[in-house]
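Subject: design request, 355 residues
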């Protein structure tokens, strides 16, 4: 096939058919394609990435080359540039990462040793509760495989690009800023990624979202003690971590691992939250401790970290979460529980933490 000539606009339209790995957005709207030179038979495409993950840039470059080749363009030069990549020292030590979140005063990780303890619900309501204290707050969903912040806050639109920057504007709801992988990918599409790509995605959400001036950024972490936890500890100067558990011993075993992991990377543990602590019967008001009781309080004492409070197992919390109407935004007793939690966490941020 003879070398086909296309103009820059035609080539751009072709490249719009290529999506950024793991996202539903194309590489042109994502700002990856910086320039297209289509003068004469030679086509030069300049790509710029804000990730240091070579696997992602190599994959995109290969897809660009294949797309142009399939269109009959033989002479192609693809130039790849990585803008301000963050080097991974591999030491496991936290660093100041001033270029990632220079306008955020405090970063709080909400974590759990295991899934199913209501960590995301606590993170979302904690963020809104902190906002109710008059703070400027952001909430980032770092659970790449199972994002849920978009549902908890009722976010349905796609984020808009920031004007003049290769970044995104955060979404806004209930007085806080928010970003989740759930608004960037199809909700029915599973992310089949290896650890490095997941870690790179978290790094990009931190760096490539224009958070602006914030008093607190709450990170909804995935369960466990794996790649994402280490990436965040290395790339961000964390103020501290809030560990969420339920009262039973099975959950407390994993909560201990979560506490130990943050202590190993020199991140203060701000405290332990006991979720699903008790159930109040709506007809009688009688208290039922379905998953045992007091386990988190005893564990906090054993670990010498603050106990931040008990969150009840109530239908209002589940209904509000499913409907995108978080409890902390509601003027009722359940909302008061989360607002009190936010007050305790903020006091823990501003006081020395026992270690």
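Subject: RE: design request

Done. Sequence follows.
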């Amino acid at each position: 096939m003879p070398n086909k000539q296309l103009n820059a606009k035609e080539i751009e339209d072709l490249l719009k058919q290529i999506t950024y790995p793991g996202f539903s957005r194309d590489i042109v709207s994502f700002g990856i394609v910086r320039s297209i030179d289509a003068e004469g038979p030679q086509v030069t495409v300049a790509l710029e990435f804000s990730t240091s993950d070579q696997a992602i840039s190599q994959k995109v470059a290969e897809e660009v080359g294949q797309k142009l080749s399939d269109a009959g363009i033989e002479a192609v030069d693809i130039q790849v540039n990585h803008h301000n990549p963050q080097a991974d020292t591999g030491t496991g030590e936290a660093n100041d990462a001033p270029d990632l979140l220079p306008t955020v005063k405090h970063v709080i990780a909400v974590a759990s040793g295991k899934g199913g303890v209501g960590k995301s619900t606590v993170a979302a309501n904690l963020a809104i509760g902190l906002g109710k204290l008059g703070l400027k707050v952001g909430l980032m969903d770092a659970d790449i495989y199972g994002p849920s912040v978009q549902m908890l806050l009722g976010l349905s639109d796609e984020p808009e690009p920031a004007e003049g920057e290769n970044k995104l504007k955060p979404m806004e709801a209930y007085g806080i800023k928010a970003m989740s992988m759930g608004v960037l990918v199809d909700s029915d599409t599973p992310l089949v990624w290896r650890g490095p790509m997941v870690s790179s995605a978290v790094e990009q959400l931190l760096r490539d979202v224009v958070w602006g001036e914030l008093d607190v950024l709450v990170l909804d972490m995935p369960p466990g003690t794996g790649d994402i936890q280490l990436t965040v500890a290395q790339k961000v100067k964390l103020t501290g971590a809030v560990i969420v558990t339920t009262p039973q011993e099975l959950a407390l075993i994993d909560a201990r691992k979560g506490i130990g992991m943050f202590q190993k990377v020199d991140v203060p543990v701000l405290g332990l939250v006991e979720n699903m602590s008790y159930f109040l019967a709506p007809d009688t008001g009688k208290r039922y401790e379905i998953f045992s009781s007091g386990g988190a309080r005893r564990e906090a004492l054993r670990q010498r970290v603050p106990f931040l409070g008990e969150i009840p197992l109530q239908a209002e919390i589940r209904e509000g979460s499913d409907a995108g109407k978080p409890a902390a935004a509601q003027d009722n007793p359940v909302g008061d529980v989360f607002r009190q939690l936010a007050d305790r966490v903020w006091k823990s941020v501003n006081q020395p933490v026992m270690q």
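Residues 84-98 have pLDDT under 50 and may be disordered.
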